[in-house]
Amino acid sequence: MNAGITNNMIPGTILEKKAMGDADGMEFLDKIFFITDGIMLSQVREIAGTDSSTLQNWVKRSWICKPTNKRYSKDQLARILIINMLRKNTQLERIDFLLKYINGNPNNREDDIIPESVLYDYITRIIDRMADSSGDDTSLAVGSLKKHIEECTQDYNEPVAGAAKRLRKALQIIVLSYYSTLITTYTEELFGKL
User: Which of 78, 145, 146, 180 is disulfide-compatible with 116, CB 3.0–4.6 A?
Assistant: First the structure.
């Protein structure tokens, strides 16, 4: 799906995959939270490359829930990374709508159909599969994306009827938006070289 455009960064971060042992998704999150169950705002900034005022604004707008004892959880970091990876090409209000479509109110875990850390893992696994199939002429086809989404989410157990369908629709939008960001960034780099 990458149309010759590669991204060596962990999605939503400013960290290179190689520097993190090629970890992605849940493996990356597990490395971050190996010793602790929460990280400070300064650590989130270092991982996401986002300034404090932006993150605090997202909390204020209830796009992410408030940290507990000034510490962000694995699911909160995953949600931040998802927002961060999409925000260049997708309006923040649309990202908020999409995340609420999946999990409802970020301050209420009872209406979630999937933990954000698992959602982030699915996203990164789908992106990796799309990158691995980039040599395939069909890799840009929406059908190919749907196939990768189906394969990556086959272990998903829906807590309510229709949750799997809702999740897969949202994943399609998230992955396409992510690739549009990569294409925009690549285009900007080409313009900069003129």
Answer: 78
